[in-house]
Amino acid sequence: MARTFNATSTVDDVLSGIDLRGKRVLVTGISSGIGVETARSLVAHGAQVVGTARDLAKAQASTDMIRANTSTSGNLELIELDLASLTSVRTCANALLKDGRKFDVIIANAGVMATPLGHTRDGFETQLGTNHLGHFVLVNSIEPLIVDNGRLVVLASASHRSASFTLDDLNFERTAYDPGVAYARSKTANILFAVEFDRRHRGRGVRAAAVHPGTVRTDLGRHIGLQAMEQAIARISADLMAQGEAPLQWKTVSQGAATPVWTGLVASAEEVGGRYCENCHVSEVTDAPVSPAAEGVRSYALDSENARKLWTRSEELVGERF
Q: Which residue from 88, 120, 166, 198 could staple onto 208, CB 3.0 to 4.6 Å apart?
């Protein structure tokens, strides 16, 4: 009988009793936060993990304890990757392709949030370029390395619900820049990428899903500031409790890593393929107004036509077809 988990489950809960020896997993963004915890848990259960980082020195310092752990058969390798530079993305992809070793799972974890108006080295709005287009090129470039019946997990966010899908003015050249809207759009793009990748590769058993890890205190919120985030969470929670609802809860880093790992290595492929998951289960589609503490994925984020349109536009932007 399949075990059930919830919002309070940790990554060690979902991997309890699971032997990952023989599994090879790519995790982007392992300099801090959920990425480091994801790598730790996978290595502890015997997996071979390749972790990417823009700053290798920071990643090495953050993962010293993981790489020094000789009590398991798992290990961790690091490779440089700056998702805000397609040159770096392609260099990383080419190195992995040359190495030739296969991956059972790719977890697209890296990202930025609520950045000031800026652009990647290729001229894309920072959040769209880093969160979506960088992963779009990386994953598609190394798709031949994913084993048959492998899996792709893309970290998205409940924030996708705050901005509807649009391909208009992606660089905010004609409209005022809003860091929250830009983040939400990039997270919708993450979900749509998983939907279309799943459609294209399910024929050989490769399934893709997007996940919301939860509200976690990590470096992701550095552009907002921890104090500002704490105050925002407190205001939201006060409003919810005034309406008789449960407050919005912070998750620990281990709880934040639980849903990506559950989706990639524990849940059945048919259950999660082409879907959006949170709190270690598949979310229901809802277009009704919901509180920030509620679950649910917007229909536009799972719409197959939206996914195809974004894929085509993304190919045009990066100058490469997949």
A: 198
Q: Is residue 130 part of a domain?
A: yes
Percent of the chain topping pLDDT 70: 88
Is it the case that residue 199 has pLDDT exceeding 60? yes
pLDDT (tens digit per residue) in 86-112: 999 999 999 999 999 999 999 999 999
How many domains does the chain divide into? Answer: 1
Angle between helices 304-318 and 179-201 (to 10 degrees): 100
| 8 Å CB contact between 66 and 76 | yes
Residue 239 covered by a domain = no
> Is residue 227 one of the residues assigned to a domain?
no
203-241 pLDDT tens trace? 999 999 999 998 886 565 455 556 666 666 666 666 666
Q: Are strands 24-28 and 75-80 parallel, antiparallel or unpaired?
A: unpaired
Instruction: Specify the DSSP class assigned to residue 116.
Output: P
> Are the beta carbons of 198 and 190 closer than 8 angstroms?
no
Rounded distance between C-alpha atoms, residue 106 and residue 108, angstroms: 6
In a domain, 231, yes or no: no
Contacts of 279 (CB under 8 A, 6+ apart): 5, 6, 7, 9, 214, 259, 295
Q: The tokens of 14 are what? A: 């979902």
Answer yes or no: 276 catalytic. no
CATH of the domain at 115: 3.40.50.720
Cα–Cα distance between 322 and 136 in angstroms, integer? 10
Which residues lie below 8 Å from residue 280, measured CB to CB, with a gap of 6+?
A: 4, 5, 6, 7, 9, 14, 258, 259, 262
- The residue range of the domain holding 168 is 11-216+252-317
Query: Could you read off the pLDDT of 125-180 as tens digits, one per residue?
Result: 999 999 999 999 999 999 999 999 999 999 999 999 988 889 999 999 999 999 99
Contacts of 316 (CB under 8 A, 6+ apart): none
